[in-house]
Amino acid sequence: MPSFRQRTWIAFLAIILGTLGGALSGYLVGRLLTLKQGQARLEQFAQRVIDEGQRSTVESRKILAAMNASPYPMCSDAEIAYFRRLIYQAQYLKAGGRMRGGSMVCSTDLGRAVHSDVRYTPDIHQRDGTSMYRNLAPFRVGKETVIAIQAEDSFIVYSPFNIQALVSSAIPFTVTDLDAPTRQASRLVGDASSAGGAFLTRSGQFSEGGTLYGTRCSSDGMVCAAAHLPVSQVMESNRVEVGGFVALGSLTGILLAFIGSILYRRRLGFENQLLRAIRRDSLRLVYQPIVDLKSGKLVEAEALVRWTNDDNVAVSPDDFVKVAEARGFVGRITKLVVRHVLHEFGETLRERSDFRVNVNIAAADLADPEFLPMLDKALAEACVKPSSIGIEITESSTARQEIARETILRLRQRGHFVHIDDFGTGYSSLAYLHDLSVDAVKIDKAFTRAIGTDAVTVTILPQILTMAETLGLRVIVEGIETTQQARYFATSRQDIYAQGWLFGRPVPAEVFLRTMTKKDTMPATDEAMETMSAFASTVPAA
Ligand code: C2E
Ligand code: MG
Ligand code: MG
């Protein structure tokens, strides 16, 4: 058991670890959300690029068709004026003109004063029969990207300003065009070194080599835009939000560690007190009568352990036995109970072979190699026969069947009467219990409580009784509080033993023994006795 100093250290350590763990989880959650949000923003941006691209393509096609349908002689003043009208009204275009055999013949901004001796080679032949020129020299200003498209003898030059508007949003992007038959990607816009090619041909969100990508493709999947930003930049611009998550995570961590250490200390406090009570032998036993329903005769008593803690609160055995089981010292309680039973009832048990006291044992006792020797030794020292001590094992404690079967067998070989307690609360069938070869089943009080109601449990009761009879198991019914409940079982063909407040509450040994000698039947209250005898007369003889 850790000392006070150690416990303080454990609490301190838990708070430190909780804070660090919380901060780390907060950071990870914050980072994850920030990156997700960043990727979504990039994808949205890529969609904007695609939308702009598609609108500009529609416009360029319309203008190129109008240019090729020019009613004027090629590159005449009238045609150049016509082209200018078309181009200057367009939203996405900055220039246009005529190109033949790779040489420019005229353009909207230079008229016929073009360098017609320079030959241009298209960068891409597009699937719609048009050709694309990247950065056509006469139209390039500074380092901006300009794209020109030629259809038949006409060409247009996209205005870089629309792209520029996107560029100036500080999110770098690339646009990739897929060639229809080969699906080979060629980059239209953007710096190839800043984006890997493989993932630019499908929509989605990616993270690669410290860079976040959001990619969107046109509905026909032939043009894709990828917006990208370094992870560090995204994190940096969301520093405050991530900080918030770290703070929140730390606070949650501190809170959890704090609650955890309080619960730990409380449990240790509870456990310490219980261990101290065992060591000081301050647990007490009470005994509850078990009667034969038909004769009204007292046949058994169940020993039930009681503990009043340091705050003078009576703690339910359901709770403290569970803690002792979980912390591995329930065997000490069992030993204490056996010792007390033999001390308090030794004389009675030596004198009356028709009466036995039942003790409850835990699952751990069944598996404990020291349990049987302890029991044998205690009985031998008290000169009490094993048949005078019944054993109650809960249904759930037989889950490890092999061990349970072995111990039950040895107990019965010695002459102990073995009961399965709280039958019906677990999942075992009567046949399974028969396999374990026990002597009796104690039907849980939940079934008794259901008598007189329309609960479904009541309908199972006759089947349990019949099955128990077929398998030769004695039946003990727990929790009988009313005559109606007692009558229900008394009408059964088989001999049934009963336990419950109607016949007597659990009382200390001296009270039990006093009443026992006085009545020589059962230590029930006078009222219960009267009820019982009145009731017994209504029960037909077996
Ligand atoms: P259990 O072995 O099924 O004991 C019967 C419980 O039903 C007892 O509760 C008893 O007081 C209660 N009882 C008896 N007649 C009536 C009745 O007519 N109506 C109602 N409502 N209740 C009735 P208790 O003493 O609180 O014990 C609870 C459980 O704690 C026991 O259930 C048993 O599983 C465990 N326990 C008690 N003493 C020991 C012990 O010495 N060792 C071990 N391992 N477990 C024990
Ligand atoms: Mg019991
Ligand atoms: Mg029970």
Supply the key terms.
single chain, 542 residues, alpha+beta, six-stranded antiparallel beta sheet, binds magnesium ion
Quickly describe the structure.
The protein is of the alpha+beta class and 542 residues long. 47% of the residues lie in helices and 21% in strands.
Explain how this protein is built.
The protein is α+β, with helices and mostly antiparallel strands. The protein is 47% helix and 21% strand. It has helices spanning 4-68, 77-89, 160-167, 231-237, 239-279, 317-326, 330-351, 363-367, 371-382, 401-414, 430-435, 445-450, 456-470, 483-490, 509-519, 526-538, and strands at 93-100, 103-107, 124-125, 131-134, 147-151, 154-158, 173-178, 185-189, 204-208, 211-217, 223-230, 284-292, 298-308, 314-315, 356-361, 389-394, 417-423, 440-443, 474-477, 496-499, 507-508. An eight-stranded mixed beta barrel has the order 12-13-15-16-17-18-19-20, surrounded by five helices. A six-stranded antiparallel sheet has the order 2-1-6-5-4-3, with helices on one face. Strands 8-7-11-10-9 form a five-stranded antiparallel sheet. α1 (4-68) runs antiparallel to α5 and α7 (330-351) packs parallel to α9. The radius of gyration is 46 Å and the shape is elongated. It binds ligand C2E and magnesium ion (MG) (2 copies).
